[in-house]
Design brief:
There is one protein chain. It is built from six helices and five strands; from the N terminus they run E-H-E-H-E-H-E-H-E-H-H. It has helices at about 15-30, 45-60, 75-80, 95-100, 120-130, 135-150; strands spanning about 5-10, 35, 65-70, 90, 110. Strands 2-1-3-5-4 form a five-stranded parallel sheet, sandwiched between helices. Helix 1 (about 15-30) links the parallel strand 1 (about 5-10) and strand 2. Helix 1 (about 15-30) packs across helix 5, helix 2 (about 45-60) packs across helix 3 and helix 4 (about 95-100) runs parallel beside helix 5. Bound molecules: D-ribose. D-ribose binds near residues 13, 15, 71, 72 and 75.
């Protein structure tokens, strides 16, 4: 991938802030431009507000991928998936990260700052960014999800 295309949005609540800062370094090392949409401290903040910000950017393809981190990654995935066009996947190892790209075409990765170590998170992020969607039968299933959004 060309460097100019390597851009990603990131956000976290207070429980994900420390992991966010470490993952930003990983992304910079990988050559990504990182759009950091907060939070910027461990002061308590409501995760749906951060999820909305990152998900809105990603739904508008500006940029087209994002990472969200809260305590478990669960709240961020629930909130981000409310935004039309978002497929947020809460991944806990490299295998789930790979499959969430190959089969689900996830455009937001969510991580648990309290449940995932930095080393595991680093592996997850690398695999997630380097794995392509397989299309084929999976494209039909993604379309079926899009159809649900219209209801
Ligand atoms: C915050 O305490 C915690 O609830 C939040 O980070 C997240 O884990 C929610 O799913």
């Amino acid at each position: 991938m060309e460097k100019e295309n390597k851009k990603i949005a990131i956000g976290a609540d207070h429980a994900g802030f420390e992991l966010k800062e470490k993952i930003k370094n990983v992304l910079h090392e990988m050559g990504y431009e990182v759009v950091d949409l907060g939070t910027n401290s461990t002061d308590s903040v409501d995760y749906p507000l951060i999820a909305k910000s990152v998900a809105t950017h990603v739904a508008g393809k500006n940029p087209d991928k994002g990472i969200l981190i809260c305590g478990t990654g669960i709240g961020m995935s629930i909130a981000a998936n409310k935004v039309r066009g978002i497929i947020a996947a809460n991944c806990y190892d490299a295998e789930t990260a790979k499959l969430s790209r190959q089969h689900n075409n996830s455009n937001i990765l969510t991580l648990g700052g309290r449940t995932t170590t930095f080393d595991t998170a680093k592996d997850i992020v690398k695999v997630w960014l380097e794995t392509d969607f397989e299309g084929g039968r999976h494209q039909r299933r993604i379309q079926e999800i899009r159809d649900l959004e219209k209801k």
